[in-house]
Design brief:
With 419 residues, this protein is of the alpha/beta class. The protein is 43% helix and 21% strand. The chain has 4 domains: 105 residues, 3-Layer(aba) Sandwich (Rossmann fold), CATH 3.40.50; 75 residues; 165 residues, Rossmann fold; 53 residues, 2-Layer Sandwich (Alpha-Beta Plaits). Helix 5 packs antiparallel against helix 7.
Length: 419
């Protein structure tokens, strides 16, 4: 048995109610877990919530209740039990001892399974594989064995006397070491690409998964990006040039969607993909205005941005899917999001207002300078007029005087070239 989710496997979900997490919150989280299961290609056949006064280190919810849940899963024909809370390696091992023929997963394991299915490019596949292996290593049980068959050619064959789990652990450690080396190489390549774009104003779209980021990206740029009504439809960062008006253009990037309880090793593995967010001049946070959990979604996004170290980058809130709610509700939500833009990316409503707002943000980061450049430096004269707005151009005996306005990084680059 392995821990991959197959098409239309039946799943039983388990949520834990505690003093910290009330029943209504757990129900919301289980609804989202249902969407994740659907995205993974399986079918939810039951949901169980359990109140606990304190966490049981062996089974999370107590041995008696654990056995009862396994029995219920068997009764309804569920092949997988998925907990909304993270299970420790010891807890997963204990469940596997009790449930011989049922897979036990937690939310992190499910998210990693979805990422593995959706990874397309070499970079995404490498990042997800690393996160998956780091998650799997401490959780190995006899239900995950014979990895040398799945990972053919990785590492060397085991010596005599090793147990199968020891062999698998060694194979995984070898795999982790190789994946880390591959990711360093990818990050170096991304760093080189990033340097080439240093002079341009960069805007990065981020948002809770399924908030409509990719739809907005397409509405703004016309790019042919993959859009599907499911969680984590795409994992790769897409970058396109966006002309806002005659004198303002930006590089716009669309990144992987965020979700609550996103596994930390997944965020770490995706560091090279999320570089665009870290190096952006402006982060556009896309929120689903029609969702009742908009505040919770924003908290999740802010927490991930903080984990990444991107909480100092200027932010613009965009409230998407305005076509799905009434004007009264729009006004109510808008009061909580001052200086935001309300749009419908699907119907291309208020996209021009969003462009204007991005221009305003750009202008606040713009600088005006005057330059004197000798005529003999023709190449420098030409470069000083690229990527900026030329306000004045005066020709004198031996020099040209330029008054230019542009993004601070570009102005800094031009000044260093002149001096």
């Amino acid at each position: 048995m392995d821990n991959k989710i197959s098409e239309q496997e039946k799943v039983l979900l388990v949520g834990v109610i505690s003093q910290i997490k009330k029943e209504s919150v757990v129900e919301e989280h289980l609804q989202e877990l249902c969407l994740l299961v659907k995205t993974a290609g399986a079918e939810v056949v039951g949901k169980i919530t359990q109140k606990v006064t304190k966490i049981n280190p062996a089974t999370l919810i107590g041995t008696g209740k654990a056995k009862q849940i396994i029995s219920q899963a068997e009764g309804i024909g569920a092949q997988i039990i998925i907990f909304d809370d993270e299970l420790s390696p010891a807890q997963i091992k204990n469940y596997h001892k009790m449930a011989k023929n049922i897979k036990i997963l937690d939310r992190n394991g499910l998210i990693l399974d979805i990422f593995k299915k959706h990874a397309q490019t070499k970079e995404a596949i490498t990042q997800v594989d690393l996160a998956y292996m780091e998650y799997l290593l401490p959780r190995l049980t006899r239900q995950w064995t014979h990895l040398e068959r799945q990972m053919g050619g990785i590492g060397t064959r085991a010596g005599m006397g090793e147990t199968q789990i020891e062999i698998d652990r060694r194979l995984i450690r070898t795999r982790i070491s190789r994946l880390k080396k591959e990711l360093k190489k990818i990050e170096k390549e991304r760093g080189t690409q990033s340097l080439k774009r240093k002079s341009e104003y960069r805007v990065s779209l981020v948002g809770y998964t399924n908030a409509g980021k990719s739809t907005l990206f397409k509405a703004l740029t016309g790019a042919n990006v993959f859009i599907k009504d499911q969680l984590f439809a795409t994992l790769d960062t897409t970058i396109r040039k966006l002309i806002l008006d005659s004198s303002h253009k930006v590089l716009l990037s669309d990144t992987v969607g965020f979700i609550r309880k996103l596994p930390h090793n997944l965020v770490a593995s995706f560091r090279s993909t999320l570089r665009e967010v870290l190096e952006a001049d402006l982060i556009v946070i896309v929120l689903d205005i029609s969702s009742n959990e908009i505040d919770d979604h924003l908290d999740t996004i802010n927490n991930v941005l903080e984990d990444m170290g991107a909480n100092d980058v200027p932010v613009l809130h965009v409230l998407n899917k305005a076509d799905k709610i009434s004007d009264d509700k729009i006004e109510k939500v808008k009061r909580s999001f001052i200086d935001s833009v309300i749009i419908s990316a699907q119907h291309h409503l208020m996209i021009s207002e969003l462009k204007k707002k991005i221009v305003e943000k750009m202008e606040s980061n713009f600088q005006t300078v005057e330059l004197q450049i000798p005529y003999k430096d023709g190449k420098i004269i030409a470069e000083a007029q690229q990527g900026v707005k030329v306000l004045e151009r005066n020709f004198e005996d031996h020099i040209i005087r330029l008054k230019i306005r542009g993004a601070k990084p570009r102005i800094k680059q031009i000044i260093s070239g002149v001096n």
